[in-house]
Amino acid sequence: MKTQFIKSDKLKQKPNKVSSFGKLFTDYMYVREYKNGKWQDGCIRPFDALELLPCSSVLHYGQAVFEGLKAYKDDSGTVRLFRHEDNFRRMRTSCERLCIPPVDVAEAATALTELVSVERDWIPTEKGTSLYIRPFVFACDESLGVHAAKNYKFIIILSPSGAYYSHGFAPVALKVEREYVRAVVGGTGAYKVVGNYAASIKAGEDAISQGYDQVLWLDGVERKYVEEVGSMNIFFVLDKKVVTPALNGSILPGITRDSVIKLLQSKHIPVEERRVSVDEVIDGAKSGRLTEVFGTGTAAVISPVDRIGDGGKDYAIGKKGEAGEIAAMLLNGLTDIQTGRAADMFGWVTAIN
Ligand code: COI
After folding, report:
1. 14, 30, 145, 232: which could join 297 in a potential S-S bond, CB 3.0 to 4.6 Å?
2. pTM over the 0.85 mark
3. Cα separation of 36 and 14, whole Å?
């Protein structure tokens, strides 16, 4: 696989400070096409509009997957990619679920390394910032039949970003979603496909209009067990034990979720992966046995939750406006490894010099 480089004739002004999430983009993107039955050589070219005909299949049937990962720069200027091969492995499984020809993990990793090396000066270094990386693959057949397309594009774009939530790393409020469901086993919930997010927007907007930040999804069959939050996996500290819903085929296998479990285990803090009923959560909040709730995700990193609403009633968790002890420890522990302030005993970081 060769990568062609098309130089931009005008580079953008880099910002002095980065605070938004996903609004600012670097000068270049990586583009690779699938046609005539194979992935062609890729190209790093100026970040610009794509040409798509109105009959492009992705616009009609949503045959598209994406990933989210991050790069950091440490104090010595070394660029650090966090678990990027795990993201590309997950992208493969998402592609397979949607009949998209999977992108080879090593080739995707090489493409990313080349792109990030070109754009290394865009990586912000202030606390809480990173280079957010968005790889995605979509169908671009020019026809309206519903079937697996024969043409695709794999693109990587880079966004220097701050915290995912506009209020930074302050705790968020979740609303238990009783009307809509996100996924069922056999569907696409365990894959990072665009349709999952489209289907979640209505519930998310309703929750925001009612004073919450995100929804807490329940399982789609019994509507009894907690699954995840719109953009995060979820953890509870119940009776002093860390508990998270077990991956059941409809929950996204988050890479931050996995990192958090391994980080806790390395500190001899056991994590129970099991079914967690919403009644257990609400009872725990009422009785004070639920001392912490936090979400985990690439974009959100560790996001403490200080309020859960259900059926018009709100339940406070921990101290209002403050992260709990375990969430704070995990946020520092993870970002220290990502940014090179702590040793990477797990082999999660790939350095690009
Ligand atoms: C991420 O955490 O990177 C995600 O892809 C979630 C996204 C909806 C912001």
Report:
1. 232
2. yes
3. 39
The confidence score (pLDDT) of residue 57 equals 97
Tokens of 72: 């950091």
* Under 8 Å between Cβ of 175 and 211: no
Predicted confidence at residue 165, as pLDDT, reads 87
Contacts with 172 (C-beta within 8 Å, 6 or more apart), sequence order? 165, 212, 213, 214, 295, 303, 304, 305, 306
- If you take atom 5 of ligand 1, which residue's CA is the nearest one? 68
Q: Which of 69, 90, 196, 231 to mutate to test the pocket of ligand 1 (most atoms within 8 A of CB)?
A: 231
Cα-flanking dihedrals φ and ψ of residue 79, to 5°?
A: -85, 135
Over residues 96-116, the pLDDT tens digits come to 999 999 999 999 999 999 999
Which atom of ligand 1 has the smallest separation from the CA of 132? Answer: 3
Phi, then psi, of 206 in degrees rounded to 5? -60, -45
**Separation between Cα atoms, residue 33 and residue 162, nearest integer Å:** 31
Instruction: Tell me whether residue 97 is exposed, middle or buried, using C-beta atoms within 10 angstroms of its C-beta: 0 to 12, 13 to 18, 19 or more.
Output: middle
Q: What residue ranges line ligand 1, CB within 6 angstroms?
A: 68, 197, 231, 297-299
- Tell me the per-residue pLDDT of 130-141, one tens digit each, with 9 for 90 and over: 999 999 999 999
Instruction: List Cβ neighbours of 338 (8 Å cut-off, separation of 6 or more).
Output: 70, 72, 80, 82, 130, 349
- The atom number, within ligand 1, closest to the CA of 197 reads 8
* CA 286 – ligand 1 centroid, Å: 31
**pLDDT surpassing 90 at residue 215:** yes
- pLDDT per residue as tens digits for the range 292-338: 999 999 999 999 999 999 999 999 999 999 999 999 999 999 999 99
pLDDT at 68 exceeding the cut of 90: yes
Q: Residue 304: name the closest of 151, 136, 172 by CA.
A: 172
